[in-house]
Specification:
Layout: E1 3-5, E2 10-11, E3 28-31, E4 36-39, E5 51-54, E6 57-60, E7 65-71, E8 76-77, E9 82-85, E10 96-102, E11 107-109, E12 115-118, E13 127-129, E14 140-142, E15 157-161, E16 169-179, E17 183-186, E18 199-202, E19 207-210, E20 218-221, E21 225-228, E22 232-234, E23 240-243, E24 250-253, E25 257-266, E26 271-273, E27 276-283, E28 291-307, E29 311-318, E30 322-325, E31 329-331, E32 334-336, E33 340-343, E34 346-351, E35 354-356, E36 360-363, E37 367-371, E38 374-375, E39 382-383, E40 393-396, E41 405-409, E42 412-417, E43 428-433, E44 435-448, E45 453-462, E46 471-476, E47 489-492, E48 501-508, E49 515-525, E50 529-539, H1 545-554, H2 560-571, H3 574-579, H4 584-591, H5 598-612, E51 616-618, E52 621-625, E53 630-634, E54 643-649, E55 675-678, E56 682-686, E57 689-690, E58 697-702, E59 705-710, H6 712-715, E60 721-730, E61 736-747
Helix pairs in contact: 1-5
Length: about 750
């Protein structure tokens, strides 16, 4: 055994690269600073192996062939240099096979600053599924993807991970001639049956880093600069794949497969995962901080599937004991076939997630927000569920039903329903009560813009006598009444039974900045139901004639005298006189106050207001009259000169308009737009369908002004109401930027064409 040190750059196999000839079994190898040595030998026959210190650079050959680096017992790869087993710019081609392995206890130690990159050849299909169930002893597996043209080959290892909770994964070898368009044949039959949809991962890669059966705790230790684009990494289950990585370096995974580790990422301060398959492991992200997963990533057959990550997007969690565990932010995450899908989530936020085929959906201490998520149960089931009095599981647009909610707290469950409703409402909320000691609650956050006034219409109901009466509380900011915060307005119903009681709150924001509020609904009883409903409506500017019309339209007028007094007040208002050439007496005569049909008088009044109200364009707000030709200049916009697009979309506030698509909202596809105009193609969509005549609309962007034009032939087809508009631009490279938008109000016209 000798210490062999490089004396210059060159191939590992060339004697002149070293001070004492090519390293042999048992040697201690040093790659000196400033030297680049390319590994191109096969050490698979070594018994002892070599130790390796890298202070220069070690690369691996890209020439076709099979190569093996064998590390000696208990040795770690160390040094402050660079170890490049392929790079992003020069990956190891498929014809070049590299195996890095070692005797008992070997590992890689990056504590001195060793920079490592691993880039081999990644298959097109890292994972496929069983297209039908398989029974124990089966050797022919029906699969849903044809991999005959991929890099899957006879002799490769695959991992078959069932979509049931934990420890039902099996490693097998593909038989000779075992790859067909719809089947894969393995050399040994399955031990356990596997269900349809079971994941089948390709384990073998052309770059393989294989652990041993030794006692070393870590696979990669103190790896400060570590990048993986592809490769196969196998541990021995009790090992940590990566551990104790500090925040001064980088740790990035783009792809590859990681199999058989106790912990994938332990006590690490940074980590970014953009791809990869992780199978048969204990947990992911234990005692780690700032761990971000931004897929496509597959986590299967783990104990704690997605545990303690800071954020996760585009991740499939399958067949784990616990699907998602710990605090995180989740987007477009699928959790399937797990024992407890969502466990111990303290304040997590889930958006666009799918949770199906799990034994339990919620378990243990669990609170968070779920937006636009899909569940395979009408009511998410729970086990060992408990949260504090102040918390709740809050699901919004559950199963993609726009405007729906499902809220679970220790006091019961609140859910959207349309059976028990106050007059004029299409949706209310049922509080299924279950505890005398805890409130069954939910809340609605909203913002009142600077200078704006809103009126909140409130309705409460219960189906039995209760000592704690249901109530609605208006809170400023994020104040929580369950934690002792005082409400600024309160509505507590009486002890009536099966009767809707009504009240209203009014808020005027007299500041020059927007202000946030939260509307809370609380009920408490050992059994029975309470109900809540609300409507938040913005009051127009009080300096506008629209204020008087709005006030009139929303009043509950019950007698002719009420109608007469209100219309008289409107007709003599200063705003009206200033906006019209007629005097007050002329207006009263014009609308016929003496007529018997007071409802018709109101229609006449609204018609007059529509004629005399100016179309307006202000920052973030556009008002236009249906049936007019629109030419809307919007100034001071910074858009790409290449292309501009303008859209008006429905919001959840427009349910009363009897829309043909009840789920339309501002995040709906552009094809569902009320109006969609493209600067290149004109009017593309009108009322959610493709426009028959694209020339009816256009966009013109000159200087910093975007002018939106829409002919009367299109505008007269629109329904009056309050909508959302958005403006975006598309540059020459296809990058989209949407920075402008606001409310778009369409007023009813007076004269309609009927022929």
């Amino acid at each position: 055994m000798a210490t062999i040190t490089s004396v210059g750059s060159g191939l590992w196999s060339v004697a002149g690269t070293w001070d004492a000839g090519v390293p042999v079994d048992g040697d201690d190898v040093v790659i000196a600073s400033g030297h680049v040595v390319t590994f191109d030998v096969d050490q698979s026959a070594f018994v002892t192996g070599v130790s390796l210190t890298i202070t220069g650079t070690l690369t691996h050959t890209t020439s076709a062939g099979s190569y093996c680096l064998f590390i000696k017992t208990g040795a770690s790869v160390v040094g402050a240099g660079n170890w490049y087993i392929g790079t992003s710019g020069n990956p190891i081609p498929f014809s070049s096979k590299h195996l890095i392995m070692g005797a008992a206890g070997w590992y890689i130690d990056g504590n001195s600053g060793l920079a490592i990159s691993v880039f081999g050849s990644e298959p097109v299909n890292t994972t496929i599924r069983l297209s039908s169930a398989a029974i124990a002893t089966d050797t022919v597996l029906n699969v849903d993807t044809d991999v005959t043209g991929d890099i899957w080959q006879a002799g490769d290892e695959i991992v078959i991970d069932d979509i049931i909770p934990y420890c039902d994964g099996e490693k097998r070898t593909i038989a000779v001639g075992g790859i067909a368009s719809s089947t894969i044949t393995i050399t040994a039959g399955l031990t356990n049956a596997k269900g349809e949809g079971t994941l089948v991962h390709l384990l073998t890669r052309n770059v393989r880093v294989i652990g041993d059966a030794g006692v070393t705790r870590y696979f990669f230790y103190q790896c400060h600069n570590f990048i993986v684009g592809s490769g196969e990494f196998q541990g021995n289950y009790y090992r940590y794949f990566a551990a104790v990585n500090n925040s001064s370096g980088i740790f990035i995974i783009y792809g590859g497969i990681f199999y058989g580790f106790n912990r994938v990422h332990s006590a690490c301060q940074t980590g970014n995962f953009y791809g990869g398959v992780f199978s048969y492991y204990q947990d992911f992200g234990t005692n780690s901080n700032n761990i971000v997963l931004d897929g496509p990533i597959i986590l299967s057959n783990g104990k704690y599937g997605l545990s303690r990550a800071t954020a996760a997007k585009g991740v499939l969690v399958s067949g784990c004991d616990y699907g998602a565990y710990g605090l995180s932010i989740y987007d477009n995450v699928t959790i399937q076939g797990c024992g407890r899908a969502i466990d111990s989530q303290s304040g997590s936020i889930f958006t666009n997630c799918t949770v199906t085929g799990n034994s339990y959906i919620l378990s243990r201490g669990n609170y968070g927000i779920y937006l636009d998520c899909v569940f395979d149960r009408t009511e998410p089931n729970v086990t060992n569920f408990s949260i504090s009095r102040f918390r709740e599981v809050y699901m919004i647009n559950k199963n993609l039903v726009a405007g729906s909610i499902w809220v679970r707290s220790n006091g019961g469950i609140v859910s959207s329903q349309n059976s028990v409703l106050p007059t004029g409402y299409s949706q209310a909320y049922q509080h299924a009560l279950s505890n005398n000691d805890f409130e069954c609650h939910w809340y609605k956050s909203f913002t009142v813009a600077a200078g704006e006034t809103v009126v909140i219409d409130l309705h409460l109901r219960k189906d039995s006598s209760m000592s704690y009466l249901p109530r609605a509380l208006l809170m400023e900011g994020v104040s929580n009444p369950l934690m002792g915060a005082a409400a600024i307005q309160t509505f507590i119903m009486t002890d009536s039974v099966d009767v809707w009681e009504q009240d209203s709150f009014s808020i005027t924001n007299n500041t020059d900045y927007d202000h946030d509020y939260v509307l809370w609904f609380l009920a408490k009883n050992a059994s029975g139901n309470a109900y809540s409903a609300y409507n938040i409506q913005t009051v127009p500017d009080t300096s506008d004639i629209a204020q008087a019309v709005w006030t009139y339209a929303t009043k509950e007028l019950t007698t002719p005298a009420d109608y007469m007094a209100d219309v008289s007040a409107l007709a003599t208002s200063a705003e009206l006189t200033a906006l019209n050439d007629l005097d007050a007496a002329g207006i009263r005569a014009a609308i016929g106050l003496a007529a018997a049909n007071l409802d018709q008088q109101f229609l006449d009044l609204v018609a007059w207001a529509a004629i005399n109200l100016d179309e307006s364009i202000t920052a973030g707000e556009i008002i236009q009259i249906r049936g007019n030709s629109w030419s809307i200049p919007i100034e001071d916009l910074i858009l790409s000169e290449n292309k501009q697009q303008f859209a008006i979309k429905y919001t959840h506030l427009n349910a009363s308009l009897n829309q043909s698509a009840s789920t339309w909202q501002m995040t709906s596809p552009d094809a569902d737009s009320l109006i969609f105009i493209d600067s290149d193609s004109g009017l593309l969509y009108l009322n959610g369908v493709q426009a028959a005549d694209s020339s009816l609309g256009s966009l013109s962007y000159v200087g910093s002004t975007l002018t939106i034009t829409l002919s009367a032939a299109a505008t007269y087809l629109l329904a009056p109401g309050a909508y959302i508009f958005g403006i975006q631009s598309v540059d020459a490279l296809g990058f989209v930027s949407e920075a402008y938008g606001g409310t778009f109000t369409i007023l009813a016209d007076v004269v309609r064409s009927v022929s």
